[in-house]
Each structure stands twice: as structure tokens, then as C-alpha cells.
Amino acid sequence: MGGVIDYLLTSLVVISLILAGANYLAYRLFERPRHALMWSVSFGLVALQYLLNLARDLLPAPAFYWQSANMVSFALVLFAVWGHRERLQLHTDWRLLLAAYTLLSVTSAAVTLWDPVISIRTALAPGFTFLAMTHIALALVRSSREPRLAQLVAAVIHQLFGLTQGLAAAIALNLDSGSRDFMYQLYSMVNFGLMPTLFIALGISVIFLLATDLAGRLNTMSLTDSLTGLNNRRGFMVATEGLWARCRRSNKPLTLLLADIDYFKRINDRYGHAMGDRALQHFARILRESVRLEDALGRIGGEEFAVTLGEMTSAEAESIAARFRAALRRQPMRYGSLELDLRASFGIAEWQEKDDIASLLKRADIALYDAKASGRDAVIVAGERSLVGMASNG
């Protein structure tokens, strides 16, 4: 039996190290998310705990083993909790975690070294793990973070693992009873029967959370302009399709507004592309502040921006453009001693029954061309005219 347990413990050491390594790779490769680093430390400590189990006969005394194992267990659980809270963007005061660790370690020392109480000594770590896993499961369920399925699966697995630990703690509290041998057998059955399988499932659920987070991040990056933080052209079209479908269903107006920075090439030529990038960021920030959160907003070309205004007419869009132009005048771009007054031309088109998104965008583009042709720093609303041979230019 001892050989089987040693083999199981060795396997769990290897699995824990693999999980620790996988989380550390996620930390190094994917913009260094702190929760991945904390989970890496947690699984590394799990490996240390199993190594202590393997080497317990080589340690100076049983009391030394129990105190060491408990302190490692408290630390790994706290790092796991901290990692989940960090991922869910919940505030965590590290001083409270340190205080909890200190209190648990002192309590363990009291019932292990000073006044030994076998039942409490054995129940401390699994009992604390049960409380921590329940906290993690509740935090995952309550969080609105997507994808919800990954959150719920992880919550169920963490709770099942916690319940196994809670069962182990309940059994441990009866180790001082008359049926001590039976309780030891039951305790070993839970720890070496149920727990390893659920521990592996827990590790997989954590990797699954990291993978879904990465997939979400990559999807966001594919839809986002990295310079301004707005939607890129693809992201803008996706957001516009949603607004367009909603307005069609409710028979509400929808208007597309295009904005193009005037004489942008001169900024790049005179001050360099770094200053041009700052101008784009400044322009994007003011544009974002001038529209509603529910509007679709994106940078769809070099210096061309677009806004889809749901439930707004072209006349209302003109008011938005006027407000934005006024904000541009009030807030020139400043960098060091340099001050630049940015101006823009605008093309506006209101959705008509015959329009699809492509033709609506084309009509707004024609209006923008007319605004440029009229001398720039102007707002033109699309009229009924041919679409052939017209395109906006800088």
C-alpha cells in the first residue's frame, strides 16, 4: 500500500509542477497577468506539500512535518484565492492575507508543537481549504465576467474540491474518538481516493480559465485599434451591424457620421509620425467624449473615424458634429511647448429603407468628400445623388 501511495504522491508532484509551469508560461507570454503568476506559485507550493508527504519519514519529527505541511497548505490556498480575486478585479489587501496566514500558522503551532491536539492539527488545513474554495466558487458565480460557462464550470469544480476538503476536515475532527483507526482509514480514503481526481480537475479548470481569457483578449485585439483604443474597421462594422439590426426591428432612425482630420499629412510631414499618432489619440479621445456609450465608434482608416448613432436622425447627428467641433477648438493638442489646433471634415448619412450598411457608408463617404471639396472644416449631410465615382480623400 505504501508503494502505491508513494507512486500517487510522485505523480501529483509532477502534475503540480506541470500546472505551475503552465501558469508561469501564461504569465510570461500573455502580458503578465498577475493572477497567472499567483496560481503558478500556488501550484508550486502544492508540489512542495506533496514532496513533504513523500519525505515525511525522513523529517526530524512528526510535529515538524505537520507544522511544515500546514504552513505550506495555508500559503498555497491564500495564493489561489488571491489569484482568483485578482482575475475578477476584486480588491484584495495583502496585509489581511498575511494576517490570516500568521494566525493560521500560530494556531497550527499551538495544536502541533505546544499542546498537541491531533484532531484539530489534522483538520486545520482541509477546513481552511473548504472555506477558501467556497469563497472562490461564490466569487466566480457572482462575477459577470465572460465567458460565463467557463466561470460556472470552474466554480463547480472548486466547490467540489472544497467539499472533499470539508469532508476530510470533518473526519479529522473525530480522530480523537474511540474509532480512531477507522477514522484514519476514512481520512486516507478521502485524501488519496477522491482528492487527487478533483485536484487534477481543479488544475484543468484554472488552465481553462486562462485559455478562455486569452481567447477573449485575442478577439478584442482583432476588433480594436491598438493606437486609439477604439474599434478598428472590423470591430466598427460588427458594432454597427448590431445597432442597425436593432433600429430596423424597432423602426427607429439610424445615422452614420464620418470624420476625417484635415491636413493630417502636414502634421506627419512637419512634426513626424510620433506627433501624428498623438494627434490621432487626442482626436479619438475627444470624439469618444462627444458621443454616447451605446454608439458604435471606430477608427476605420488612417485619419478617418466613424460613428454609428442609433435612434438618431441626421439633424441630431449634425448637433453631435457641432459639439465635437466646438470641443476640438476648446481643447487644442498640447505636447511640451507645441500646441496644435486640429480641425476635421464630416459626412453624415441617415439610413433609408433602400440602404444596407455598405450603401449607407458609401453615402456618408460621398458627403465627407463634399465636405473636403468645400474647403474642409465643414459638415455635409448626404442628399439624394448618384454614388458612382465618388470617394473621400484627405
TrEMBL record:
Catalytic activity reported: 2 GTP = 3',3'-c-di-GMP + 2 diphosphate
Is Transmembrane given among the entry's keywords? Answer: yes
**Where, by residue number, does the polypeptide cross the bilayer?**
6-27, 36-52, 64-82, 94-114, 120-140, 152-173, 193-211
Q: What class of enzyme is it?
A: transferase
Q: What EC number(s) is this enzyme filed under? A: 2.7.7.65
Which keywords does the record carry?
Answer: Membrane, Transmembrane, Transmembrane helix
* InterPro entries according to UniProt: Diguanylate_Cyclase (IPR050469), GGDEF_dom (IPR000160), Nucleotide_cyclase (IPR029787), Rev_trsase/Diguanyl_cyclase (IPR043128)
The cofactors required by this protein are: Mg(2+)
| Annotated GGDEF domain residues | 252-384
Give this protein's Gene Ontology molecular function annotations. diguanylate cyclase activity
Against SUPFAM superfamilies, the record matches this protein to: Nucleotide cyclase
Q: Which NCBIfam families match?
A: GGDEF (TIGR00254)
Q: Which PANTHER family match?
A: DIGUANYLATE CYCLASE DGCM-RELATED, REGULATORY COMPONENTS OF SENSORY TRANSDUCTION SYSTEM
Please state what the protein is called: diguanylate cyclase
- The source organism is Parahaliea maris
